[in-house]
């Protein structure tokens, strides 16, 4: 028993001597991100900050051990977390779009089982809190522009109807050079390659709205 007590006291003293650094919490920080960016474990950070709430507040100070050494910036760690979140959302958008594969093409429609092209993208994105106008040309002004080389699943891809520069069609990019879209009354909602000559000739750009 005495040995256990002495061991605990030694560990406590070691931690106490090591508390020579503090970190000021920034907006968006998490305990995991702070620990990783300073080269320590989450468990060690929590031991040094007993009773700490997981919901950190900007301006809050966290104790760090003296041997903490920044290995990466918090902003970089946060970017990785955001990218992971973005991939999850993108995958969910694709799944939501696929659930309507084979639906009828109906001009002006935006309801389960029946869509036109912009009605389809509007319906899919509405499930993720994104409000889009029921117009492919108006949707082309939403979100931010994405280059063809940086397309990711969930982006909206736009094409002309034949008249140069005039938006006439939109689909949801699903990766690997493919999109899902409400194509024509004879095909309904289908998957197509944006690398087909027809679409290559009419490609206008892409927008990231989520």
Question: Could you explain how this protein is built, in words?
Answer:
There is one protein chain. With 210 residues, this protein is an alpha+beta fold. The chain has 2 domains: 2-72, LysM domain (Membrane-bound Lytic Murein Transglycosylase D, Chain A), CATH 3.10.350; 90-208, endopeptidase domain like (from Nostoc punctiforme) (endopeptidase fold (from Nostoc punctiforme), Alpha-Beta Complex), CATH 3.90.1720. It is 36% helix and 24% strand. It has helices spanning 2-18, 31-37, 42-48, 74-98, 117-126, 136-139, 197-202; strands spanning 21-24, 61-64, 104-105, 110-111, 114-115, 144-146, 156-160, 167-175, 178-184, 188-193, 203-208. Strands 6-11-7-8-9-10 form a 6-stranded antiparallel beta sheet. Strands 3-5-4 form a 3-stranded mixed beta sheet. Strands 1-2 form a two-stranded antiparallel ribbon. A hairpin with a 2-residue loop joins strand 8 and strand 9. Helix 2 (31-37) crosses helix 3. The protein is elongated, with a radius of gyration of 26 Å. It starts with a helix and ends with a strand. Mean pLDDT is 82; it is low at 5-19 and 79-86.
Key attributes of the depicted protein:
alpha+beta, endopeptidase fold (from Nostoc punctiforme), Membrane-bound Lytic Murein Transglycosylase D, Chain A, 210 residues, elongated, 6-stranded antiparallel sheet, 7 helices
Summarize the structure.
With 210 residues, the chain is of the alpha+beta class. The protein has helices spanning 2-18, 31-37, 42-48, 74-98, 117-126, 136-139, 197-202; strands spanning 21-24, 61-64, 104-105, 110-111, 114-115, 144-146, 156-160, 167-175, 178-184, 188-193, 203-208. The chain has 2 domains: 2-72, Membrane-bound Lytic Murein Transglycosylase D, Chain A, CATH 3.10.350; 90-208, Alpha-Beta Complex (endopeptidase fold (from Nostoc punctiforme)).
